[in-house]
Specification:
The protein is elongated and about 100 Å long. The longest helix is centred in the middle third of the chain and has 35 residues, at 203-237. The protein starts with 6 loop residues before the first strand and ends with a helix. The chain has 16 helices and 11 strands. Helix 7 runs antiparallel to helix 8 and helix 8 (203-237) packs across helix 16 (466-482). It has helices spanning 18-26, 67-77, 84-94, 105-115, 132-144, 161-171, 185-198, 203-237, 253-279, 312-333, 337-344, 352-356, 370-375, 392-410, 442-460, 466-482; strands at residues 7-12, 44-50, 53-60, 119-125, 148-153, 174-177, 240-243, 287-288, 364-366, 383-386, 420-421. The chain folds into 2 domains: 7-198, P-loop containing nucleotide triphosphate hydrolases (Rossmann fold); 219-482, no CATH class. Bound molecules: guanosine-5'-triphosphate (GTP) and magnesium ion. Guanosine-5'-triphosphate binds next to helix 1.
Length: 483
């Protein structure tokens, strides 16, 4: 058997954000957190596992109820400093049977794991001021003789950290700021590095935990790139069909098809969202974002070009390439000219680039149209179809939405209970909030645009190859690292 894993107990006054620290550290959104004091009634142990290994245990506890009275009990039993750990033990033994409202029931619960050897994480809410009762808490913790670290968490805007710091430094081996709601992966890792410092015996196991977390983080990024790559290839390449049995398509069929196509696009996105959230251990997140609206003329108008992920200049820059991709895809399939005529149809456009930078994701077409005959050569029966997508704007919109969602989920603390905000506003027209894709390093953006075009080109030839999907996923991994 390997050595026992390190244990940490999170203690402090009521309503300081103790459970929030626990939820963040172990990525568990189910830890009970609430704005009223006394939310955590019983001690709860959580084993943090990653990569199939138990790494450390963290114990959530109720807050101190009456630390001053508890300390006074202990003081009466400690004649010299050497007696202090025993006095804490005597206190716990004297009140061990107490439950509910009986005196010191909560103190017993939170001290027991410390007496059993757990390291201490003392959480204070630095948006409130220091009180004498806090000193009693810290004194009791010091008396236990266990290694301890203090965390300055803030549940509100106000910041009294400067007042707290010199006090905490008298009592604790390490004092760190840790914002349970804003903490990201790097902050959590930093905290684990702190754990490593406070007790020598934990050094090697904490070292392993840190390494395991780092590699898990990379695995997640790789899987996320896979999910997003598949989403893009599947959604852009998707073709929705509706059979036509009579001479002419019945009225309403085109609309029905368009609706089904849109639903399918949303479903692709929805599934990918769920997979990304599961990768990062988030469940039942409520998302605040504009629904994917694909054929709403307003959303594809010049006014809301920001929706597309790239800014106007970036879109223009890639536009011509998209026209060429379609042209290239077609040349291989047939002799080009007639196909293009069919594809562009009656649309009055200045050039291919203009068309593909255009307003439609993909048109509803008849299998008997020139494009239909090319795309579905050898297929019998007549049908209407929509897809593969031909709009560059749509491709970038989908990519940008996926990147925005990925970043928000990756960086979200599990202590948060509010909506996952993906848009700067919730009104009908998006504001000027810069998009994630627009801010990518130019080289990565160029690469991604090339990959998306290749997806489109192959989709027009029938299917997107494994090789192209794999390249897209590889490059997306770098993109995810950069966002
Ligand atoms: N904005 C903000 N709010 C926080 C933060 N940490 C905790 N809170 C809020 O503070 C309140 C108390 O948080 P809990 O984590 O339940 O605190 P606790 O110390 O476990 O409370 P008890 O179990 O009742 O003793 C909740 O409403 C949290 O959402 C933070 O870092 N930022
Ligand atoms: Mg709690």
């Amino acid at each position: 058997m390997s050595e026992p894993i390190p244990e940490f107990v999170v203690v402090g006054n009521v309503n300081q954000g103790k459970s929030s620290v626990v939820a963040t550290l172990i990525e568990n959104g189910a830890v009970p957190i609430a704005s009223y004091p006394g939310t955590t009634g019983e001690t709860a142990r959580y084993v943090f596992r990653q990569g199939g290994e138990d790494l450390f245990t963290i114990i959530d506890t109720p807050g101190f109820q009456d630390a001053r009275a508890a300390l006074s009990f202990m003081q009466q039993r400690a004649r010299s400093p050497a007696d202090r750990p025993a006095a804490v033990r005597a206190f716990v033994e004297a009140h061990a049977g107490n439950s509910g409202e009986q005196p010191f029931a909560d103190e017993v619960r939170l001290l027991q794991p410390i007496l059993d050897g757990a390291g201490i994480l003392y959480v204070v809410d630095a948006s409130s001021r220091f009180q004498p009762s806090h000193e009693a808490e810290m004194e009791i913790l010091r008396w236990t003789g266990q290694p301890a670290m203090a965390l300055l968490n803030r549940t509100r805007e106000r910041d009294h950290s400067d007042e707290w710091r010199p006090i905490l430094e008298q009592f604790f081996n390490l004092v760190r700021e840790f914002d349970a709601h804003a903490a990201r992966f790097a902050d959590r890792l930093e905290l684990l590095r702190g754990f490593r410092e406070i007790r020598d015996a934990w050094r090697s196991t904490m070292e392993r935990a840190i390494t395991a977390m780092e590699s898990e983080w990379q695995v997640r990024r790789r899987k996320a790139a896979q999910v997003i790559g598949e989403l893009l290839a599947d959604a852009l390449g998707h073709v929705e069909k509706r059979g036509v049995s009579s001479d002419a398509p019945p009225p309403g069929l085109a609309e029905e098809l368009e609706k089904a196509y849109l639903d399918r696009q949303r479903a692709f996105e929805h599934t990918a969202r769920g997979e990304i959230e599961r990768l990062y251990q988030h469940r039942d997140l409520e998302r605040g974002e504009h629904a994917l609206m694909l054929h709403d003329a307003d959303l594809f108008s010049e006014v809301s070009w920001r929706l597309f992920g790239l800014d106007r200049t970036q879109l223009m820059r890639y536009g011509a390439g998209w026209g060429a991709a379609i042209g290239g895809g077609i040349d291989l399939a047939v002799g080009g000219a007639s196909f293009l005529t069919g594809l562009i149809g009656g649309a009055a456009v200045g050039g291919l680039g203009g068309y593909f930078a255009g307003k439609r994701i993909a048109s509803v077409l008849d299998s008997r149209s020139s494009i239909g005959r090319v795309l579905f050569a050898g297929t019998t029966g007549r049908f209407l179809f929509q897809g593969p997508a031909t709009s560059q704007r749509y491709a970038w919109m989908l990519a940008d939405r996926a990147l925005t969602h990925y970043r928000a989920v990756r960086d979200r603390s599990h202590a948060r209970q509010d909506q996952l905000a993906l848009d700067a506003d919730s009104g009908p027209v998006p504001t000027s909030e810069p998009r994630v894709a627009a801010n990518l390093p130019a080289a990565l953006r160029d690469t991604l645009d090339r990959d998306l075009r290749q997806v489109l080109k192959e989709a027009l030839r029938g299917s997107v190859t494994q090789e192209t999907r794999a390249r897209l996923v590889r490059n997306l991994e770098q993109v995810l690292e950069a966002v």
